[in-house]
């Protein structure tokens, strides 16, 4: 939502100077020193690929009541159970549900394709407005041919989270993009891979395959949620 709000509230060609307060933000950072200049649109890469808290803070500094704008956008696109209290997601007051996060992911994939495409890049390099080369690797998911795009998160209160789209084989030689949302995970990678394996072993276009000895029990930790494919 921070990326979505920034793209709709800040001119994408506006040059932003990283502030000391943003650079000193705790948690994941983009490795950008204070005083470096970037076009606003270029800062989406560290924000989305590395969960850069310093970039989130910098965006928040650019717009009056940035978090209020985030909440207004959430309400506008139907996120009925979502509340934002900061731009970086560090605050324990940020709350949402798997269904709301699916709605947000679907909205971005449909209406904000440039943001969705960034989430699927493995690595991105660019020059700052000052001519310095920066490179950011996608830390949301390990190298994996099934991964399409997605955003991970981790805080003490929320534990590990992931909202991603994966290529899932639901029939012989047929893969479909499926959105999988995991909240409160001890290990998001383990949970999501278990969900994908279960889907591939037990579903064909939404129909459960039942073995002779009865339904197959999913090996998925309680709390993991599966949502429908993004495409019909």
UniProtKB/TrEMBL annotation:
Species this protein is from: Candidatus Sungbacteria bacterium RIFCSPLOWO2_02_FULL_48_13b
Q: What is this protein called?
A: Peptidase S11 D-alanyl-D-alanine carboxypeptidase A N-terminal domain-containing protein
The molecular function GO annotations come to: serine-type D-Ala-D-Ala carboxypeptidase activity
Domain Peptidase S11 D-alanyl-D-alanine carboxypeptidase A N-terminal as annotated: residue spans: 8-186
Instruction: Please give the coiled-coil regions recorded for this protein.
Output: none
A biological process term (GO) from this entry: proteolysis
The lineage's top-level taxon is Bacteria
């Amino acid at each position: 939502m921070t990326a979505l709000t920034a793209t709709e509230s800040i001119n994408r060609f506006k040059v932003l100077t990283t502030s000391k307060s943003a650079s000193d933000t705790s948690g994941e950072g983009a490795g950008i020193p204070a005083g470096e200049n970037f076009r606003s649109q270029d800062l989406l890469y560290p924000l989305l690929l590395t969960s850069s808290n310093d970039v989130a803070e910098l965006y928040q500094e650019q717009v009056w009541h940035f978090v209020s704008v985030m909440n207004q956008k959430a309400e506008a696109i139907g996120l009925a159970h979502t509340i934002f209290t900061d731009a970086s997601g560090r605050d324990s007051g940020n709350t949402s549900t798997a269904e709301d996060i699916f709605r947000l992911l679907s909205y971005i994939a449909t209406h904000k394709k440039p943001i969705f495409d960034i989430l699927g890049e493995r690595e991105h390099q660019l020059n700052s407005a000052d001519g310095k080369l920066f490179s950011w690797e996608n830390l949301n998911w390990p190298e994996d041919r099934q991964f399409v795009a997605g955003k991970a998160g981790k805080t003490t209160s929320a534990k590990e989270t992931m909202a991603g789209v994966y290529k899932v084989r639901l029939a012989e030689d047929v893969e479909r993009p499926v959105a999988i949302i995991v909240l409160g995970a001890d290990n998001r990678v383990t949970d999501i891979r278990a969900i994908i394996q279960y889907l591939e072993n037990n579903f064909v276009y939404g129909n459960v395959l039942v073995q002779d000895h009865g339904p197959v029990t999913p090996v998925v930790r309680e709390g993991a949620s599966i949502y429908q494919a993004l495409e019909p």
